[in-house]
Amino acid sequence: MVNKNSSHGQKIAVVGGGIIGLCIALKLQLEGGDVTIFDKRGAGEGCSKGNAGHFATEQVFPLATPALLPQLPKMLLSSTSPVSIRFQDIHKTSPWMVRFLLKARKQPTEHATKALTSLNEVAMDSWFKLLEQIGLKHLIVMNGSLLTFESEALFNGYRPTIKALKQQGVSCHVWDKELIRAKVPNLTHSVNFGVFFPETGHSLNPYRLCLELASSFAQKGGSWVQEQVEDAFFDGELGVVLTDKESHSFDKVVIATGAESSKLVNKMTGVKVPLQAERGYHLMVPKLKDCLPFPVSSADRKFIMTPMDEGLRLAGTVEYASIDSPPNMKRASMLKDLAKGLLNTDCQPEDGGDKWVGNRPSLPDSLPVIDSREGGRILLAFGHQHLGLTQAAITADLISELNSASKTSLDISPFALSRFC
Ligand SMILES: Cc1cc2nc3c(=O)[nH]c(=O)nc-3n(C[C@H](O)[C@H](O)[C@H](O)COP(=O)(O)OP(=O)(O)OC[C@H]3O[C@@H](n4cnc5c(N)ncnc54)[C@H](O)[C@@H]3O)c2cc1C
């Protein structure tokens, strides 16, 4: 007989095979669940494919903060700005933008900071526990990361943030110019200050990480159905997942469909979730593979450079657009110019390089939805914005706890779906 309060023997459908769905599927499978992943594409083919690979546990502040407000109009109006709105989509994105701006106040910022900190402070433990069980611990490199400052005024403006980070328990050290030179010789002399985060890590290949998780899942008997899920519902005790091809029956259904979650969640729960595709880009520079020892981001230029096995990945920029609008690959090319100014002459990015766009699943308060409905038969895990890679394994732990109806190891009330009811 199926135990309603344990994964063991349960038939579980996980919709979405990105980093969030993959970690959840593996976790529930390791607990004895009979798990099937449904994805209309392959493993990690969505936003999880080309991200910056940074396990960014230091990013404990939401995106909308009081400090952002005065900067935002100038940012949004400049075509080369790191943050932009696609004008053709403004009628679709502006309601989300209003909700986002309303969160840029002291109380919501403090609320979101506390909630993000609670996830990030245990995020790496969760990752290593999961990867250890499947022999893939080597896929995360814990070398730390560096945030650089060229402008002294910008660094001085960041000093209160350093204090606030320390108050949240984030380990960080200020580096002066000489220390930066010694540790990262390939940065230009224009870099005057740095903040080093020793407890962060990076992936040498976020897509390979997804493929390795999927392969481990398959080796353990997990099933993969490459179909588009149109709906999922319960007919009495029977859970039904309806795809574009056929219907499948399950005991429980997990929704982890990233930036495309709102339609399904609305059908299944009646709740309209304000989910926005926050598009970001990357440019891969193969020649610069060994140029940096760890991810280096720039506070002035607002992008990140991560050393990976196929090159130096330049990533970032935020573009608010409809999920189905054509990408603006000029924003990926723009990353090369940003990097040129930050790297010394021996380390300049060449022309060309693989360009990529992805849709970050973002909610106005910068918090994901991690919740359950229908007495725990529907489990929800989406909306991880800039931090999906970082928070995937802890999300899987919390979904497993919700699935077994045990008390969750941290307060998940900030991640409740009901905040949008
Ligand atoms: C440029 C950039 C840099 C980033 N850098 C970082 C970083 O350094 N660190 C970090 O932590 N995060 C980073 N992120 C964010 C991170 O990549 C995302 O938060 C994360 O990938 C979201 O994972 P997901 O599994 O929720 O979504 P996805 O990876 O998009 O997966 C969702 C899956 O669901 C499937 N799907 C959707 N709808 C359906 C349906 N109806 N039926 C079947 N399948 C469906 C899709 O095909 C897809 O495979 C970055 C993002 C971008 C764009």
Question: What's the helix and strand layout?
Answer:
Blueprint lengths: L10 E5 L3 H12 L3 E5 L15 E2 L16 H6 L5 E3 L4 H13 L3 H28 L6 E2 L3 E5 L2 H16 L5 E3 L1 H7 L9 E5 L3 E3 L2 H14 L3 E3 L3 E7 L2 E6 L3 E4 L1 E4 L5 H9 L6 E10 L10 E3 L4 E6 L2 E10 L9 H11 L14 E8 L6 E5 L4 E5 L5 H16 L18
Parallel strand pairs: 1-2, 1-14, 2-10, 4-18, 6-16, 14-21
Antiparallel strand pairs: 3-9, 5-9, 6-8, 7-8, 11-12, 12-13, 15-18, 15-19, 16-17, 17-18, 20-21
Helix pairs in contact: 1-7, 1-10, 4-10
Bound molecules: flavin-adenine dinucleotide.
The site of flavin-adenine dinucleotide has 43 residues, from helix 1, strand 15, strand 19 and helix 10.
Which ligands occur here?
flavin-adenine dinucleotide
Radius of gyration: 21 Å
Helical amount: 25-40%
CATH class bucket of the largest domain: Alpha Beta
Helical segment count: 10
Mean pLDDT: 95
Strand content: 15-25%
SS elements, strand count: 21
Structural class: alpha/beta
* CA-CA gap between termini: 35 Å
Assign the CATH topology of the largest domain.
D-Amino Acid Oxidase, Chain A, domain 2
Name of the CATH homologous superfamily of the largest domain:
D-Amino Acid Oxidase, subunit A, domain 2
Report on the biggest sheet. 9 strands, mixed
Give unreliable regions as ranges.
none
Describe the structure.
This protein is of the alpha/beta class and 421 residues long. The chain is built from 10 helices and 21 strands. The strands form 4 sheets. Strands 4, 6, 7, 8, 15, 16, 17, 18 and 19 form a 9-stranded mixed β-sheet that branches. Strand 11 and strand 12 form a beta hairpin. Helix 1 packs parallel to helix 10 and helix 4 crosses helix 10. The radius of gyration is 21 Å and the shape is globular. Flavin-adenine dinucleotide binds next to helix 1, strand 15, strand 19 and helix 10. This is D-amino acid dehydrogenase, small subunit.
